[in-house]
Amino acid sequence: MATEIQIDAFTPPKMASRMEEVGIAKVGLRTDTMFSLAILAGAFIGCGAIFSTVATTGLAAAGMGYGAVRLLGGLTFCLGLIAVVVAGSELFTGNNLIIMAFADGRVTLAQLLRNWGIVYVGNFVGSILTA
Questions:
Q1: Going by fewer Cβ within 10 Å, which terminus of the chain is more open, N or C?
Q2: Which long-range contacts (CB under 8 A, 24 or more apart) does 62-65 make?
Q3: How far is Cα 84 from Cα 93, in angstroms, rounded to an integer?
């Protein structure tokens, strides 16, 4: 039996519409939920940065080439980003896409700035907690 491969490919207008829906959902989160998810994302990114730093300094001290060290450092940092996506946490850089819903008038300026402020501070707190 053949398995059909399905690809989620969307046209740019459909993708923009989907991003608007995500933005509306993000600004609708409760404050405590949003802040907790933001702290979690900051911690994941902080852990990815620490892991990357440890990997690059250890490999460089072991005499591995510059390019290979940078490649492995980037791969280890990506683990933090993967954790953000898998956990569904709130990372400030991703929440900048809410501007699309704002530009279409589906999100108010107050909702946008509330989300950005809470998530930015939460990411900062999460990154500090990992240090």
A1: N
A2: none
A3: 11
| DSSP string of 63-105, one letter each residue | T--HHHHHHHHHHHHHHHHHHHHHHT---HHHHTTHHHHHHTT
User: Distance between CA 96 and CA 123 in Å, rounded?
Assistant: 14
Place of tokens 């991003």: 19
The residues, any chain, with a CB within 8 Å of residue 26's CB and separated by 6 or more, are: 34, 90, 95, 98, 115
Write down the pTM of the prediction: 0.85
Tens-digit pLDDT profile for residues 9-53: 888 899 999 999 999 999 999 999 999 999 999 999 999 999 999
Alpha-carbon span 107 to 129, nearest angstrom: 31
Q: What is the Cα–Cα distance from 38 to 122, expressed in whole angstroms?
A: 5
- Half-sphere exposure at residue 52, Cβ-oriented, CA atoms within 13 angstroms: 17
- What is the tens place of the pLDDT at every residue in 60-92? 899 989 999 999 999 999 999 999 999 999 999
- Number of other residues whose CB lies within 10 A of the CB of residue 119: 28
